[in-house]
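Handout, section 4.2: multi-component inputs.
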Amino acid sequence: MSLVWLILIPMVGGLVAGLVARKNESLCRWISLSALILDSGIAINLFAHHWLGLDLPTSTRWLVEFQVEWIPRLGAGIHLAVDGLSLLMVLLTLFLGIIGVGASWTEIKTQVGFFHFNFLWILSGVIGVFLALDLLLFFFFWEVMLVPMYFLIGIWGHENRQYAAVKFFIFTQASGLVMLLSILVLVFTHAAGGELTFDYMKLLGTPMDGTFGLLVMLGFFLAFTVKLPAFPFHPWLPDAHTEAPTAGSIILAGILLKTGAYGLLRFVVPLFPAACQVFTPYALFLGVVGVLYGAMQAFAQSDLKRLVAYTSVSHMGFVLLGVFAWNDYALYGVVMQMICHGFSSGAQFMLVGALYERVHTREMGRMGGLWTTAPRLGAASMFFAMASLGLPGMGNFIAEFLVLAGLFKVSVTATSFASLGLIAATIYSLWLMRGTFFGPNDKQWKIADLNARELSLVAALVAGLVFLGFYPQPVLKAVHPALEALQQSTAQAPVPVAMNRR
Amino acid sequence: MASIPLEVSLFLSGLLFSLGLLGVLVRRNILFILMSLEIMMNAAGLAFVAASSHWGVADGQVMFIFIVTVAAAEVSVGLALVLQLYRRIHTLDSDAVSVMRG
Amino acid sequence: MLSLLWLVPTLPFLGFLILLLFGDRMTKTLVGIIGAGSVGLSALLTMVIGYQFLASPPPDHAFTQVLWTWFEVGGFRPEIAFRLDALSLVMASVVTFVGFLIHLYSIGYMHEDSSFSRFFAEMNLFVCMMLVLVLGDNLLLLYVGWEGVGLCSYLLIGFWYQEPANCTAAQKAFIVTRVGDTAMAIGFFLLVTQLGTLQVQDLMHKAGEMWEPGSGMAVAATLLLLGGAVGKSGQLPLQTWLPDAMAGPTPVSALIHAATMVTAGVYLIARTHALFALAPSVQFLVAVIGALTLLLAGFSALVQTDIKRILAYSTISQIGYMFLALGVGAWSAGMFHFMTHAFFKALLFLAAGAVIHALHHEQNIFKMGGLAKQLPVVFWTFLIGAGCLASIPLITSGFYSKDAILWYAFSSEGGSIWLWMAGLAGAFFTSIYTFRMVFIAFLGEPKGHIHHRPGPVMLVPLVVLAFLALFSGFIELPHNFAPVQMFSNLMDTVFHSHGHSHEEHSSAALEGILQLTAGIVSLIGVAAAYFLFLKDPSKVEKISSTPAGSFLQGFLLRGWDFDRLYDTLFVNPLMALARINKGDIVDSLYNGLASLTQMGHYRLKWIQNGAVRWYAAGLALGAVILLGVFIFT
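Output:
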């Protein structure tokens, strides 16, 4: 039942916050904050049980499972379950959600209630995506997180928000449609050999071979790589990030992108192991191109937020590479990358938002030398720029190291090219710092430094990243059973010729 | 009483329908369009009645009663709309109301 | 006491944290005390630990302190662990002790600066990271320090960030070294996937078991590691960042870009010496890179006019000597030169800094002159440093360390007469450019006006370093002089099986001849500098005013135009590509799709014109067509 609460609390909290806001905007903020904290309490409780090894079921792969009937005639049920992987993702979601509420405390001034309603409903949808084990339910949550996000960008965004919101909507919706088709084909193929069901556990192992399997797999792949985003499905992202309000960018980069990565891990490879093995070289190619292309585009931008947005394309390329390398090192690396990128990019968007609140521009040409007037903001930006370029000592380094080491086992060429991304990351990160905080302060900016609220959010993120950089073991240990199970689900698959050739 | 052959009454019904359609297409006055619509509907009713008397089944006549009812309802709504329209834009030209915002 | 090893890097880190959090609210005195004090304590602790290590050596002459397991994935299990052996002890001692002296000096040098606490915070972080690099037991932890010092180097080169040129230099330093670091990272991937560990001792052990000498894996792994070493140590072909790095404050140049960080590459190769021994071809490449670099940089140093750039090129050149030593398998000689170089080069930089400080940020040697009388202490210490750099025979440490390298370059298995001649020619140029600096800046007519006189806080480090620079050479004498080989005996505990065989007494006479040659060459260099730059500078001016001469001068001044080459090959094309594609060509693909849809919309929108009669006609037509289809088929 706790899983249902995980999803329901933000929903209800959002409704209440939305209703209260007409009378009292500050109360609305506090309500959404406390709803998220309450929800985190449940999640942390689950994690603590998991970590301490209490009531750890040994027979099944799920820590907690919840299953009731929903539409029996279609074989669709409300099937929620959590393992180490999804639990970590839920925790990340709630943590960044809290950061997001904190970051928009003063930024959002219009329609506060509706903002928090949308915000919490996105989080609820995302949590649902991480928990759902029924494909129809999964698709339902996939759509739930989409619509409020559209409003978030379209109402509270910057000057070009309508364009960005529509673009975001069309990209995700179109790819979601293709996924729905693939879900249906998968379900009916399974039904042809037996039972009509949308249940993930039952659909595992459905034989989907040859070109047919590849096509069905590509339907899922498309939806998830649009969300991820991988080259060449990324163009929605720079626009959406740039135009979204700060909280929107934080959860967009921090969490929504991770649903794509999660989908690849949970659904694409386990459901279609054979097709994925055939597809691996192409996926690796897309990953490498994404890493380098995203980095190059980031360097080319002069709009600060757009720059940070493109870095996500580059970093998510590593996720794609890791998923398709599909071995020990790489998978742990992917999980680390999901979490650490959530932290670092969320933090970067928060800082860019804070900067925008102060100087009212995102053009780097109009900034420069800001370190003099806001050293704490500068130091924080420096820290996260370093995290973004993968400086050892922060979690991102462990992530990239593991992904690339895993990839090295699969393809030396891909590793070599992807490693160039490390150099490229250095270039754009330094470019970012130089354009904003270094150089002469020739525009004579005098801005306020980070205040206590912002400092505490930054401190939380810094502490998280450094902790993960020097002791990532809790994360690795928590996902260990989940990754083991995922790898087992593909282990039985016959190895096609393409795999041996590489 | 010598019965009128089915072909003749169906031909008459077709003729009336075509006239009505022609009226709908060529008249620009909404009142006349409404009248032409009535003619078309009654043409259809005539076809029903003729068919029902030909086979001696009451169904067609039931349908006609329906048609009359619907026609009455339609005219009342239609005339109300026409009145509103006239009040707003002072014309009954159907081409003048081709845009949605007003 | 050995168990306090973890405190050695932690103390400077605490200093960094305190200065970061509260530095802007402290007085400058307090900042100085914390900044220099934390490093001083660390130096003291290192000395105590070192004394104990030498007095009662732990088993295998190495002590490892495991703090915690970093992470564990698929059998790969790196630990946060520090390892103390002779090699890391020497490195750590130099880092903390020279680091402390430079911190002390900085209190005087940076006193006017408004970002005083930021300076010390970043310097402390640097010392911490350097110690992590040196003490790290596995390559991954070493990499933490490796990148950490890179970050600090970036921050400190760009310390005066309001000057765009400094930012550019800082970025260049970070990016160029990062190119090498990436190669190194790929090397790590190879080692992890092949050998399953990055723990240095296991690595060398396993590699020796699994890889044949000269096998492809060994060559690839060492080549990739060499990439990292070359980048960090400013060797060919990644040397271009180091001269520009002089944009930072002078203590930074002394600490980071002369004494410690730039020798990290030397340390890396020495640390993984057994791997390099498995790949003789790569080891030979190390020697060749060293020889080429020392010559190229020596030439460039000849024509520089900025005192710090002269020293920068000489640093590149001296590290070239260390690479040469490593390349011929003379591990201990390379480390010996590292140590003496750290002392005398830090001394030279600090003395130069005192001059620059006194002349109000004047760095051009032609605008100095006659400083010997005005700043006597600085002059004498600078002279001692210069003597060491030029390896003046018998009395300076530089002579002993460089002589060892030259001897092994000639006599060891990997050596050859060509490498020896390159080293000798390098020594000749070294003494010319070194004494050119001395003669032009310190002798002759006074040209500048002295603004500040360095206080005791700046002079004490100079004197201590001068003392070390003079006498540190006597702990390791050539075999044919006296049986005093303290340094190499210590180093043999690390390099034992791979150390150089010293049993070549038969060639004592030959060694003597070579020493004599090297000594004479150095002295001739000094004499040449005297005639060319002090007695009669007109000849040099005449040569440099001819077209060929001025071209050559410019070419050398720009460091053999490597910058231009890289700009043309990499920087400009990439910048252009980025600029052209700023709008993202993939986006225009989707925009194309969108405009195609829009075009369709414009083509079809006349159908939906809002005229009711038009719709009715459409309906009628459709009905007729349907009827027709039904009837005629």
